[in-house]
Amino acid sequence: MCGIVGYVGSRQAVPLLLEGLRRLEYRGYDSAGVAVVRDGLHLVRRVGPVANLAKAVAVEPPGGTGIGHTRWATHGVVAEPNAHPHLDSTSRIAVVHNAIIENHAAILALLEQEGIQFRSETDTEVLPHLIRKFYQGDPVEAVRAALLLVQGTYGIAVAFADHPDVLIAARNGSPLVLGKGEGETFLASDPQALAGHARQVMYLEDREIVLITAEAWDITRLDGVRITHALEELATELVWSGKGSYAHHMLKEIHEQPESLRRCLSGRVVLDQGGAKLGGLDLPPSEIANITRVGLLGCGTSFHASLVGAAAMENLARIPAFAEVASEFRHRNPVIDQGALFLAVSQSGETADTLGAIREVQLKGGRVMGVVNSVGSSIARTCGHGVYVHSGPEIAVASTKAFTSQVAALLVAGLMFGRTRILGLHEGQSFGRELLGVPELVERYLDAPGAIDAAAELVSGGKYVFFFGRGVSHAVAMEGALKLKEVAYVPCMSYPAAEMKHGPIALIDANTPVVAVVPDDTMRDKTLSNVQEVKARGARIIIVHTEGDVYAAALADVSIPVPRTHSSLISPLVTVLPLQLIAYRAGIMLDRDIDRPRNLAKSVTVE
Ligand code: M6R
User: Fold this and answer.
1) What is the pLDDT of residues 97-127, one digit of tens each?
2) What is the pLDDT of residues 453-465, one digit of tens each?
3) Could you tell me the pTM of the whole model?
4) CATH topology of domain 3-238
5) Which residue lies with its CA nearest to atom 4 of ligand 1?
6) Backbone angles phi, psi at 273, to 5 degrees
7) 325 burial type by CB count under 10 A (0-12 exposed, 13-18 middle, 19+ buried)
8) Ligand 1: distance of its center to the CA of 392 in Å?
9) Catalytic annotation, pick one of 401, 483, 535, 602
């Protein structure tokens, strides 16, 4: 979603701001802009890719202080006047903003009564005008006074024509990180933009304002109290990674899965004890034994991984568990049982819906830990405890390697809790051994993925596509359907296989593509009966099945064998792979923008 960059130093700001904005492109956006200070404010904004903006600023506005932004439209259509930065009416103050000012309508009405004319449809534009209203020479105090009137969430950066050597930034619920260079300071909403420029960074906390110069920064809380934060090393994983020899980030990330899974599992399964060690979830055995239930909260792909995680908690540890879409959780006034443990699952660590759910748990005195990919992200910091899944930076909007790493981390957590509660040494060892063997299975499958193109042709020609599976394979079916919607824009539905006959089967007619996920587990025979039911009505069937299952293969129009896993809980780590590849190939066949599908953002920072 929206991205912020800022620079104060002696170098030309524009090339650095553009580089930062390019690194934020993966988050999804529809317009971009920069404002640079030197003898006034120079503003350039363009709809479309950062490349359009780069062309427009070919004659660089001079200046060593500037702010930049990529906008993902929320309030107001995609148009240049709605792109950031926004200016006050004297064009002496420029603001970029992430997230949403909830009381913008009230502030706008107040400012209009005072004669201010608005030039955009955005919620953001109230900020430069409000800051101007309070500006009496001190930029920090003007921003503070303005923000005291604001309700909602924000990460903002403000440039003042009167103060060419400083930037002001502030956050409430939307991340900002500062990076220290040699005689220069960088600002960004995502540490990915700082890689290569700053080794040491400082994360701003909610309701804090910072005055930034080339040499230093000065932080105060909104209530005026001065504070300091320690510098942190920028995570080494944040090395800017290109596409390598792959045509798209998505394909590269699919093929990185053997390695990302190795990283996730490394050092965490303790074979001689038949258990596991997850540093961030290091609850004493007596506490693990007393957990009354586990609630897993996430959105999109992270929700699908959570469904597998809940099954792992119940089956390996016999702890009652549920997974819930984070965006719904806090709005139903959930009961937070003090013995419960909540796990917030997120790739980006910035998803506003998931952050909202975490705060709900915390507000009610509950325990919540993160299962997060992005090191230092808001969710990791808000939870304080948890595990990193270590899949490495995921750039494609469609999540692939993060899903398998999330599932793997949750299976390790299930093993750890299970061994403390009910699993015997040998059961724990055999599960742990199988888990450690998964990266090799994934590698073997990806080397010879089977009839992906035939499956992709079938689904890309369909009016709509059904995905189904049972148990954890239903979570995989949901994930496969989400991938195909996102990457190929093909309408899809996913159902637990047996539900088909309770209504959805009415939609099946000759040639409707159906993708069935049927590993050789206890649900296999029943799922294959459900396959027969749709086949009898003319559906064209793609079956993802365990290699050697000749009966399943013979039922399918397109059969895709995957390596055998003995525990059905582990099967999602292999059955999801062909579904990722089918979505990718269907997207290519339909000429879609694979890495940046329309309307989507990598990091969904608004509710
Ligand atoms: O960063 P998160 O894991 O919290 O993101 C949650 C969803 O927005 C995300 O999984 C989304 O559904 C992906 N685009 C799926 O490919």
Assistant:
1) 998 888 999 999 999 999 999 999 999 999 9
2) 999 999 998 899 9
3) 0.81
4) Glutamine Phosphoribosylpyrophosphate, subunit 1, domain 1 (3.60.20)
5) 346
6) -100, -5
7) middle
8) 15
9) 602
